[in-house]
């Protein structure tokens, strides 16, 4: 009997791996076309801005194009507000049961709106929209497979993983992003399905774009131990600047309230300013990956500082308008500029070898993202996969960890969670009749470790169905003892999902137990 039980579990996992592969293939095709369209259209528009420097009359056509795009994308946003912004907060809201979206509407409107918003030259990234595109592919696939609510969330997660993998050619980072940033936990079915999606999506993306890393910076020397003390100072700076970024980004809605236009049409502000940015600095347009590649050549300190200020200010203006575009790549670009500025400063004033400036660029991307997104593991692996080198894991880890801690000490919160709270603050949580299950891990610091089920004051609106321990499922009763490594399978109503998750997390904390 036990053997048959294991076979059943294995079949379930294979079943989800196949489903994840299906989601990955579809997501890979859609995101690759999304990415390719942005690159091709972006090149054309950038060339037009370059030509306009000698043919100013062309600026009239560019202005008309920008205003048309602002109006057209505004209509898309008005028809479906769920396509606003990066899309990552919406995905997190879906998985927490706090938001519902029309998957097909978001799919085609985010696809078209994202292409025009990002390719036009605004300082927005393609990665957030790619994650949301993958998530709605997963949602649509769940309807095709007639999945349960719990299975739907697994497929949405796998689609999000596939979206990031295809956008950056970074399958491991795609998997880690889902586990670290979205779920904050490790579930066997989620990681298997998401990994299958990420790998297949990346394979499709490689067919379109080849094996070359997204940020191929050439040969990057290994940083000597004598320079590690500089990394500590850099990491502290990144943590502080990351905190400033979070605060400014979350303050943007108050600034945009002064714009005498409906929120859906706030895009007229950045699209109007884009004409000046594109005319004077055409090389800076877009998410920033081309700008990062240009940093391989030495740049003057004043120029780097100017680029940093330009990228920071206009990326805030671009994202604050709630257009379909993300902050993923713009954050990495700002991190690269901070690293370039710090490295060049060390060369000019402390005699550091110029060949190590690249190292500071690479580690700064990870540190800045780790501070803002509060996902250090994702930051480390993402930059590693984007650069295509494994020689910098130690400095990447050091900078990401310190930047994360500094931001945490300052009171910074994960940016996507903060954006989600702002998104749902005015929405009533519906009490849906649709049931769903989720897994809650017993970690070493959990107060539930060693307790019997009946000794815990469980929240309302939930039922502890079973406990997964290794490869076994344990039917629970009052004297079942919970241990580290257990996964509690909990049944609840979708409308109470977020409330129940937070309640259990609070009750399982060591602090909560000490206070009782």
UniProtKB/TrEMBL annotation:
The chain crosses the membrane at residues 12-38, 58-77, 154-177, 189-210, 231-252, 264-282, 303-321, 327-348, 360-383, 389-406. The keyword Ribonucleoprotein does not apply. Pfam families: TrkA_C, Voltage_CLC. This is Voltage-gated cchloride transporter, chloride channel family protein. SUPFAM superfamilies: Clc chloride channel, TrkA C-terminal domain-like. It is a multi-pass membrane protein. The keyword Ion transport applies. Residues 424-506 form the RCK C-terminal domain. Gene3D superfamilies: Clc chloride channel, Regulator of K+ conductance, C-terminal domain. Keywords: Chloride, Ion transport, Membrane, Transmembrane, Transmembrane helix, Transport. GO terms for biological process: potassium ion transport. It comes from Candidatus Enterococcus wittei. GO terms for molecular function: monoatomic cation transmembrane transporter activity; voltage-gated chloride channel activity. It is found in: Membrane. One of its GO terms (cellular component) is plasma membrane. It comes from the Bacteria.
């Amino acid at each position: 009997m036990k053997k048959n039980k294991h076979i059943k579990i294995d079949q379930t996992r294979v079943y989800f791996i196949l489903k994840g592969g299906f989601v990955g293939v579809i997501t890979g095709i859609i995101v690759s076309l999304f990415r390719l369209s942005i690159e091709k259209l972006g090149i054309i528009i950038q060339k037009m801005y370059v030509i306009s420097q000698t043919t100013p009359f062309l600026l009239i056509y560019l202005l008309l194009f920008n205003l048309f795009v602002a109006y057209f994308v505004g209509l898309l946003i008005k028809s479906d507000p769920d396509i606003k912004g990066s899309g990552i907060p919406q995905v997190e809201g879906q998985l927490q049961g706090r938001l519902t979206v029309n998957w097909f509407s978001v799919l085609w409107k985010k696809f078209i709106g994202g292409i025009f918003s990002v390719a036009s030259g605004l300082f927005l990234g393609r990665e957030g929209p790619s994650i949301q595109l993958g998530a709605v592919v997963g949602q649509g696939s769940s309807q095709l497979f007639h999945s349960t609510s719990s299975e739907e969330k697994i497929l949405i997660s796998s689609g999000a993983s596939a979206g990031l993998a295809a956008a950056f050619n970074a399958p491991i980072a795609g998997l880690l992003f889902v586990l670290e940033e979205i779920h904050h936990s490790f579930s066997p079915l989620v990681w298997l399905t998401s990994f299958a999606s990420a790998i297949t999506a990346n394979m499709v993306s490689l067919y379109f774009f080849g094996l070359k890393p997204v940020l191929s910076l050439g040969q990057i020397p290994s940083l000597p131990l004598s320079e590690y003390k500089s990394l500590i100072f850099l990491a502290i700076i990144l943590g502080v600047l990351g905190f400033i970024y979070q605060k400014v980004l979350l303050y943007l809605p108050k600034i945009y309230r002064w714009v005498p236009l409906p929120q859906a049409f706030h895009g007229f502000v950045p699209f109007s300013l884009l004409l000046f940015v594109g005319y004077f600095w055409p090389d800076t347009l877009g998410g920033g990956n081309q700008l990062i590649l240009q940093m391989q050549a030495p740049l003057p300190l004043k120029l780097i500082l100017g680029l940093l200020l330009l990228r920071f200010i206009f990326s805030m203006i671009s994202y604050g308008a709630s257009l379909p575009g993300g902050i993923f790549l713009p954050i990495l670009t700002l991190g690269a500029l901070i690293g370039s500025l710090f490295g060049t400063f060390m060369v000019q004033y402390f005699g550091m070898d110029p060949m190590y400036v690249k190292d500071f660029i690479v580690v700064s991307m990870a540190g800045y993202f780790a501070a803002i997104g509060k996902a250090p593991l994702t930051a480390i692996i993402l930059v590693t996969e984007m650069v295509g080198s494994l020689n910098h894991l130690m400095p990447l880890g050091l900078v990401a960890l310190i930047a994360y801690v500094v931001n945490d000490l300052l009171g910074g919160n994960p940016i996507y969670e903060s954006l989600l709270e702002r998104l749902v603050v005015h929405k009533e949580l519906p009490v849906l009749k649709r049931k769903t299950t989720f897994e809650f891990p017993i970690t070493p610091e959990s107060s539930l470790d060693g307790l019997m089920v009946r000794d815990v004051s469980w929240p309302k609106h939930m039922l502890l169905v079973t406990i997964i321990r290794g490869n076994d499922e344990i039917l629970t009763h009052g004297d079942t003892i919970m241990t580290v490594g257990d996964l509690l399978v909990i049944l609840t109503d979708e409308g109470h999902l977020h409330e129940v998750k937070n309640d259990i997390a609070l009750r399982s904390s060591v602090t909560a137990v000490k206070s009782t």
